[in-house]
Amino acid sequence: MRFYVSPDSIFPEKNLIKIKDKAELHHIRDVMRLQKGAIINVFDGKCREFLGAIEEINKDLIIIKILDINSVVGEGFKPSPTITLYQAIPKKSKMDLIVEKTIELGVDHIVPIITERTVPKIRDFSQKKERWLRIAVAASKQCGRIRLAGISDIMNFNKALIEAKAKDLVIFATLDEISEPLKAILKGSMPKKIAVFIGPEGDFSPKEVSMARDIGYSMCSLGRLVLKSDTAAIYILSCLSYELQ
Fold first, then answer.
1. How much is the pTM?
2. What is the rounded average pLDDT of the residues 49-60?
3. Rounded Cα–Cα distance for residues 161 and 216 (Å)
4. For residue 116, how far is the Cα from the chain centroid?
5. In the listed set 72, 97, 127, which residue is the last one of a domain according to the structure?
């Protein structure tokens, strides 16, 4: 059983971990019904994992005694290059699925972007981001990661294009006819920092495709079939995980 605790609640010098987060308290005490003496794993999202035993369970606090520390466990679950996903915000709750599955597949950072064809109008992004961060923690717990993926504030397409210039390789998924398969783009390449752009349903606009091409980004075809935005994100992260490990 794995649980997430923020680094400021972990005290290795005292061999103690204090769990105060309401969601984790509820999970340990009310869902899993763990008792004093139970052995659990705790990770801090910063590449440290702890083996511990529950020493005390209270209404607002659980105290864990640290038995062992491992700073590298779980890194085999992520590709060695860092991957940033620039994802056009899809309709309804599809972004929830994208966050969950791409994190399980090794993405390091997710940037929600607004494009010309983006449909949803986000009025309260803080609530959306809080929800996506909760999903990120749950996905990391489930798949064995010990480094949490970051989720940025919403960014417009033009700013995202400029920011991505800092990456070694930028993969721009598009239905445009002048594009090439991902395998061809990766052939002979050893990038350390990768950016992936996934558009909304209906693809990026011709103007946006032209802007990305003019910068020199790699126009990427995802095959003969037309994929939905959420499927495309999961597909390309799956391919990257396979090709780069």
1. 0.87
2. 93
3. 11
4. 24
5. 72
